[in-house]
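Record type: monomer structure entry
Structure origin: computed from sequence
Chain ID: A
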Amino acid sequence: MPDRTTGGMTAMEVLIGVFILVIGLAGFFRAIVSQTVLNEHSRNFTLAMNDSRRVLERIRQQNTSDACVTPSALPPQLPVAYLSWDAWLADLNGGGGKSIRPDSNELIAVTCQKADNSGFCGAGDDPIHLTIAVCWRHRSRTIGDCTWNGNLLIENNPGASGDPNVVNSPAQLQTVMSCRR
């Protein structure tokens, strides 16, 4: 009479199967978390680029008039005197508010240089070379040439990653500007 097997699985086979399933699920969940972080970073980068475009457009508008004698990268002074482009953009009535929330997690840095990049621009320089860089915080990391002081982003010494006069960032625009009449 031949031996009959029950056709069931041994405990060792079940344990090996469960182990393989757990490894597969761990990889799947890690991929989901990585994709979520990548999506957040991409969204923040897009918002930062939009903010830099808004600042650049406002600078362009300021330098488009018959009254423009030499180009300027100074923040708007009317109806409110803004100390920086960052303050202008943060103001809901001025720049419309920053896109990356909360506001302390985004910093706009506008650097104005002479057209030959020989130093910071001043009165009478025409044309001027502008760099608009946006630094922001993403999951305890600072993106761009800025430092997190535990409460706010502050500009590093310009040029920490390149040009000694410019704050750099992945979300950065550069242009040469003169008065447009």
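Annotation 1: The radius of gyration is 27 Å.
Annotation 2: Residues 8 and 55 are 70 Å apart (CA to CA).
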